[in-house]
Amino acid sequence: MEALALSLVNAVPPLAGVPLWAVTLLLMVATAAVVLVFALTFEGVGSLVLRKVAGDIQARIGPNRVGPKGILQFLADGVKLVLKEDIIPANADRLLFKLAPYFVFVGSFAAFVVVPFGVGLIAADLNIGIYYVMAVTSLVVIGVLLAGWASNNKWALLGGMRAAAQIVSYEIPVGMALIPAVLIAGSLSLQDIVRSQGGLLGIFGWNLFHNPFTFFSFFLYFTAAQAETNQTPFDLPEAESELVSGYNVEYSGIRFGLFFLAEFGDMFIVAALSTACFLGGWNVPFFHVGTLPWIWGNLLSLGVFLAKAFTMVLIMMWVRWTLPRLRVDQLMRMAWKYLVPLTFVNLLGVSLWLLVFKGKGIPGMIASLFG
Amino acid sequence: MGLKAYLNDIVEAVVTTAKGMRITARYGVDPKEEVTLQYPEERWEIPTGYRGFLHNDILKCTACTMCVKVCPVDCISLESVRGADKKMVLASYDINIGRCMYCGLCVEVCPPKSLKHTAGYELASTTRGELILHFISEAAAEVKARVARQVAEAAAKAEEAAKAAEAAKPPDLSSDLSSEAARAAKEEAAKAGGDDPKAANLPSEASNVAKEGAEAPKAAPEKKE
Q1: Which of A8, A17, A301, B11 is the most buried (most CB within 10 A)?
Q2: Are A238 and A167 in contact, with CB atoms under 8 Å apart?
């Protein structure tokens, strides 16, 4: 970010008098604002698409009153959430009650920082990108647990406890399923991981097709990540038929809105991570984006990345409206008896593969056969 | 759990999930699967024999009160008076459609088939009084007064006719017995062949009804509720 600020100061002479740290700070705020706007827009439109997809799948129509074909529904929802009365229960722990939504929202939103949107479009290319995402999304657990505890409501507390158990359990398979991508790229940085899937192999350069283990790894990650973000087949923390609404039952107005936004943010993070780690990220097949002028290269790679990520989001919604909710014991059994062992076996397989074949994947080997 | 069962579980999970997702995808893609009827814009086809709101054709109604008697929830009320032609004249016919349970007994029982179900099913109001359907726009008292007047006129005409008949008759016959005179008047009228057969119809009884009608509008022969 500082290098960018330096180049900006060099490019624009009037900025020469401004201290470098101020320009850097300004750039940081601007970047954060852009990412935040993207996140909020995605969350708004995502909620509309979710409801439309639900309508289609359930042979209904979905929202169609606000604006043509109901496309302004998310604005109406947003305005409603902002204008609603913010109620804090009398016996709630007021400080924690107010704090909880921010934890959840920050935990979800902070992960957007390392999402590789394009060749040069990344808010911060941390060299521990994946690790950072895993760490920061775990903050959501604290927020959810706080919300459940501070509401002083048995349903909320039950939801919070379930969320804690679930998210902590599924953190392990999620991490283990992402490690194959890290192993292949040899780096934790998401940009490096995406770059490692480029090249002339096209979609066969993706980690998804690298070897059979990474192929399974993708599905294991996708399943576990759905559970980690409380998506519907695993939405036990907010199981409305059992827990009214779960940990957020006492929240209203904008505080509830933050939980809601965080849920959609998590959805995008899962889609973005699976895109970056397994589906080639912003790489355009059979084409090296870096050779294009900066602006076109970035726009093209952004388009490719978003297309992949939104497809993943759609698949998540599809799963969401297909499968019924699991029971708590089934959920835990799935994590500890199926996903955790499978991801470990998978990780072992990928490691051995890389050791035996010197880091080459099946498509790479086939390509080398033909020169 | 053996390894075989374990692997079987995994395969089953994958297969059943794929199966479910295939079904939902079919529904999601196929636009014909939408079953929603967008009500205010689109309406369903009313089947024949649909029991909607009740409508009474008051021109056919004979005020027999069968509907009032059969209604299990007492939602029909009617008032009627006997008219100059001895037929019952409706003074008011109200159906409290908010209370009606659409059983259709009144329609079944209606002898002149004047009471019918319509296809209507939409009615909303802020007060319950608006849910009462009035089939006669005139006020009941007005109708009664008008009928009473007609009856009185008819009675007066009949009396005149009777007097005329009496005048035409030889005076030796007993003139103080009105019933005798009436019978004579009737015979006279019949002989005359269409002098005023309506007015000549038992004037004594007509005058009775006229008296009753003029006495008070509250003396309604049929009143429920």
Answers
A1: A301
A2: no
Which residue of A322, A338, A342 is in closest CB contact with B24? A322
Per-residue pLDDT tens for B89-129?
888 888 898 888 999 899 999 988 898 888 888 888 898 88
Contact between A117 and A170 (Cβ < 8 Å): no
A318: contact with B, CB 8 A cutoff = yes
pTM above 0.90, yes or no: no
CATH of B54-141, one of 3.30.70.3270, 3.40.605.10, 1.10.10.60, 2.60.40.640: 3.30.70.3270
CB < 8 Å to B23, chain A: 322
pLDDT digits (tens, 9 = 90+) for A71-116: 888 888 888 888 888 888 888 888 888 888 888 888 888 888 888 8
Q: Are B192 and B199 in contact (CB under 8 A)?
A: no
- Closest chain B CA to residue A55: B28
Query: Which residues are bridge partners to B92 per DSSP?
Result: B79
pLDDT, tens only, B17-69: 889 888 888 877 776 666 778 888 888 888 888 888 888 888 888 888 889 99
